[in-house]
Amino acid sequence: MRSNLKLALLLAACSTFCACQPKTADSGATTAPSDIVIGATIPLSGALAGFGSFQKWGYEHAVAEINAAGGLRIEGTMRKVRLVIRDDRTDANVAAANIDSLVSAEHAVALLGSCTPPLVIAASLAAERNATPIVSGCAPLMSFRAAKQWQWAWDLFFNEPELAEAPFKAWRDLNVASNHRIVIMHDNGADGTVVGEQLWPAMAARYGYTVVANLEFPTDTTDFNASVQQAHRAGADILMVDAVTPQMVSIRKQLASAGYTPKVLVMEKGAEPTQFAEAVGPLADGVIVGGYWDASFSHAGAAELAAAYSAETQHSVSQHIADSYTAARVLLDAIGSAGTLDKLKLNTAIAATDRVYPVGSVKFAADHTAALSIAELQWQSGQTRLIWPLSPHSAAFLSPAAASAAAPGH
After folding, report:
1. I want to staple 58 with a disulfide (CB 3.0 to 4.6 A). Which of 29, 325, 352, 384 is the partner?
2. pTM for this one?
3. Helices H / strands E in the chain, number of each
């Protein structure tokens, strides 16, 4: 009797459990295809947060376009893309850890990189360990090449020597008058050391300029008064600076406080994001930054990309929306072309990339890099304007001294 009761209870429990389970393919039910997971690590906080905000928009915009068109066809089935973004906090160790987690925990089949050589290289090395393709669009190519002979990592950006030479070409073509004396200020990070210690001095000598002072500072410095005073006393018409955005904001304000307004002011890297101009206001006018993209370029989709960003954010356009959007599209197009999530086949499809995107022509060399064309941009009235190469769309050069004299209160 007791045995029969136990059996009855066991059968009832089993019946209830089985009835609650979802139906599987074997039962005749259909299951929606799973999303394709793409992982990204970008600096949404820390010193490079200004760049990360543009990367986030570019990556998300590219994925949204693909999903709006129905997704990507994988093994004959259309599947949507799910983008998982993690903040690396402008820390190379966090960037590497993010990549490991995106692959192991989120099961990302491919990855998108961060910004600047320390973060991009750290993330790329982690991707290599995980044998997972990663495409980045924000690391100068010379630094990227020097790090490793890459197998799974790809980078589309500019070559540092070309960027370093561009200001000198621009001054020549624009007939910018100066006493040909230059002061260089740069941080001791990877970018700053290469550009400030090596490339700018070499280009100055090539084009007939004299570097009268070359001042280096740590990447975490906030007080630049001593360097600014030294630069002021040097009597140079041209000041060239390479630093990240928080430092660039401090330097520009401290230049103004010291009454030092050079005729030509190049503020590479950190003065590019909108956050720089918002922080310094009219002091941004006349500041030159190296560039590789402008909405006026004839590349297919360039104007439309700028219009989409402005409409969605109500903010000024940054060139970093173009390289980040393009990096994502290169990766997504390669997945679509491969038609599979096999990582080796996907990597091969990335290698075969050869087409024009909004940022320009992208074709990877054997060293896994694709070089973008160089331009010179200048802050004028709260917007970056193309000033070189000369074209029907380029604006006239604005001297910081002239901008300062025209500012209210002068």
Report:
1. 325
2. 0.86
3. 15, 17
